[in-house]
Structures are given as C-alpha cells and as structure tokens.
Design brief:
Elements: H1 2-11, H2 22-26, H3 47-59, E1 72-83, E2 89-94, H4 100-116, H5 119-122, E3 128-139
Antiparallel strand pairs: 1-2, 1-3
Length: about 140
C-alpha cells in the first residue's frame, strides 16, 4: 500500500513556477545603463552611518578603494531602478563593482529610501528603467 502511494506521488506533475510581476516580465533589464534617464527624485539621507558600513567593508578587505591625494576615499555604486505603474519601485539592480556586500547593501539602502518617499514623490514617474549614481565618500 505504501509503495503504490509513493509511485503515484512521483508521477504527479510539478506545479508551474510562480509568474513574474507584469512589469518585470515585460520590461527587460537594459544593457546600456548610460542611456537610461537619471532617476528624477532625490533620495536624501544622513550619509555618516551609511558610509560607516562601506568603510568597514573596505577595511575588512572585501572591497578595494584607493584614497585620492587629499585622503578622500570614494566608492561609486550605480544602480538601475525599475519603476512600475503608478510610480511604484519594482526593482533595484546594482552594477557590478567587484564588491558584492556593498552592491547588495546599496540595493537595500535605495529600496528603503524609495519606500520612505511620499506618494507625491513617485506618482508622476513614468514606468520604465532609470539610473541612479550612489556614491559613498569618507575621509581617510
């Protein structure tokens, strides 16, 4: 009896994979980020705590940054932002900079700031991909 039940269970078809949200399914990731329009809404924050995380990743050797002649360290992490209908942020994708922890931190950081914006900040955004340069900078 148990053997027959196992054979039936194995023969059942697997459920289909979950469908992608409509915006992600119909809007492919662009290959030329320079051609994307700049994300038109400023996302402001106190950069001190944010840069502290990035500094710790650099200090731990997970990211490579060379200070300039004045001793200022700078790490640029460009992201692409997919805006859906009604100005809803659907996806944030980092450009690879050979520092995965900071890339993913930046995605979370930008997503959090975008969610914290008011509806009025996003309601006039057209659906599509945008680019947003994110720069972490600190002395030393």
């Amino acid at each position: 009896m148990i053997t027959a039940w196992l054979m039936i269970a194995v023969q059942l078809p697997a459920p289909p994979p979950p469908a992608l949200p409509p915006a992600a399914a119909t809007t492919p990731m662009p290959s030329n980020w320079a051609a994307l329009p700049l994300f038109p809404r400023p996302l402001r924050t106190d950069g001190f705590h944010v840069s502290a995380f990035v500094q710790s990743e650099v200090a731990a050797g997970r990211c490579r940054v060379e200070p300039d002649a004045a001793g200022v360290s700078r790490l640029d992490v460009p992201v692409a932002i997919l805006v859906g209908a009604g100005g809803v942020i659907r996806q944030v994708v980092p450009q690879a900079i050979d520092c995965p922890t900071v890339e993913q931190f930046t995605v979370g950081f930008v997503s959090t700031l975008a969610r914290g914006a008011t509806v009025a900040d996003h309601e006039r955004l057209r659906a599509g991909w945008y680019r947003l340069p994110v720069t972490y900078q600190w002395q030393g």
